[in-house]
Structure formats: C-alpha cells, structure tokens
Design goal:
Elements lengths: L3 E5 L7 H10 L5 E4 L5 H7 L4 E4 L16 H6 L4 E4 L2 H6 L4 H13 L3 E6 L3 H5 L2 H15 L5 H4 L3 E5 L13 H19 L6 E5 L7 H5 L6 E4 L6 H10 L3
Parallel strand pairs: 1-2, 1-8, 2-3, 3-4, 4-5, 5-6, 6-7, 7-8
Helix pairs in contact: 7-9
The structure holds phosphoenolpyruvate.
Phosphoenolpyruvate binds next to strand 8.
C-alpha cells in the first residue's frame, strides 16, 4: 500500500512565481502536485521529490478541439497523473460518465495514472449510506466501462469525494469514509479480482486538523486535498500524518 497525497490547486495561485514558490514549499515524497495547465512546466522544473499531475485531459491526441489539452501533451511535459471526473468539472462543465469514461481510456492508453473522482451529492447522502453506495457503484461502472482494469490496475486510483464535503469545511466522518472506501475496494474485488483493487483516496475539506483521523481509516490510502494544499505549512502537516 502506497500512501499518496494529491494537492489539487484548482484555479490557483494567480501567478507563475507564486506557483513555483508553493511547489518548492510542498515538494515532498508521496505527494502529487496538480497545478493549473499554464504552470505545469515551471512546477516540473522545481520539483525534486513530488510527482506532477494535471487537473483534466481530453480524449484524443490532437485535432480541432479548441481549449483542450491532450494526454500526449501532458506526457511530454512530464505529467504522471491526471485527475478525471472531478465534481467541479461534472458540475460546472457538464462532464458526464460517458466523457469521464473516454478520458480514462485515453489517459491510460497514454500511460498516465488516473485519479478517478467519484462522490455523491447531499440529496443522495440524505437518503442513507446504501443510496450513496449505489450511486458510487454506478459512477464506477460507467466511468470504467470497457476499461481493461486488470491490465491497468496499478495506474488507477479512486478518489472518493462526497460533493457535500468539497470546499465546505464539512469533512465526512471517519466512519463514513471507511465505509465507502471498503465498499469501493469490495466492488473492485468482486468485479475484477483481488489483484486488481486500486488505492482509494478521500477528498473533501481535508485539513491539518482532520488528517490524523482520516489517515487511520481502514481502506484509505491517502487524500486529495484542495484548499489546504495552497497553505504550505498546513499541507506539510497533512503529509506528515500519512507517513508510514
Ligand atoms: C478537491 O479539490 O477535490 C477537494 C477535496 O477540495 P477541498 O479539500 O478544498 O475540499
């Protein structure tokens, strides 16, 4: 089990100089730094320990797709990981399970590791944990449709990110996190066999204060951190909690 801490900077910081400084301050083993596209190259030059990730990817290598970035472009920049299906992309940019699926296929073909985000919204969660599990199962099935999971098992990471916990300060309880991580792993075990169970991360308002309890959750192999990844000292505290 490899602990992994993903720093999703989202659309921050504002300048390339600030990006370089933040990268220097958070450059640690086990960390994947995921800056906005324009900062990838500069951040890559700074990193000595952390790996580089991208926040999204398109599903073909080139062509008339204004505004998109292809898997091969990312690979050539030294990117190793890509986040696919983040709820902000599903919500604001109308990504669907189908587009998520195409992106996963393309990223894996390009030998990128995929951080596949799944997570239920508040309405689903209010109906109870079984409804939430059913929702997640559906996202997993649709997102991984026709993906040769056994061939790519080492390159797939699932990030369980309940939408109601992202950016709200309302972290899921350790019990909820553990229940869902176990559910996701069991689904992979039953569907693809015991050899093909991915690492599972939790994301949703992870902070310096909550990291200790999350690190102890069964089935959790790391965290995906948004807001707190922009605060170098707090991010270091989070990483310390996942040192094994
Ligand atoms: C995220 O970016 O997916 C995330 C979990 O953000 P935050 O930590 O700010 O909730």
């Amino acid at each position: 089990m490899n602990k992994i801490i993903v720093a999703n900077w989202k659309m921050n910081p504002m300048s390339i100089e600030e990006a370089a400084e933040l990268a220097r301050g958070t450059d640690m083993k086990k960390v994947v730094i995921v800056p906005p596209f324009p900062f990838l190259s500069r951040v890559k030059d700074v990193l000595k320990h952390a790996k580089l990730g991208a926040q999204d990817v398109f599903w073909t290598d080139s062509g008339a797709y204004t505004g998109e970035v292809s898997p091969m472009m990312l690979v050539k920049l030294g990117v190793k990981f890509v986040i696919v299906g983040h709820s902000e992309r599903r919500n604001y940019f109308h990504e669907t399970d189908e587009t998520v699926n195409k992106k996963i296929h393309a990223a894996l073909t390009a030998k990128l590791s995929v951080i596949f985000c799944v997570g239920e919204n508040k309405d689903v969660r209010k109906k109870g944990i079984r409804h939430a599990e059913e929702f997640i199962r559906h996202e997993l099935q649709r997102g991984l449709e026709s993906v040769a999971v056994p061939r790519h098992a080492k390159s797939i990471i699932v990030a369980y990110e309940p939408i109601w916990a992202i950016g709200t300060g309302d972290t899921a309880t350790p019990n909820d996190i553990e229940t869902m991580a176990m559910f996701i792993k069991e689904w992979f075990r039953k569907t693809f066999g015991a050899q093909n169970v991915p690492d599972v991360l939790y994301g949703g308002s992870v902070s310096g204060g909550s990291a200790h309890a999350i690190a102890k959750c069964g089935g959790i192999d790391g965290v995906l951190v948004g807001g707190a990844s922009l605060r170098a000292e707090e991010f270091k505290t989070i990483v310390q909690n996942f040192k094994v």
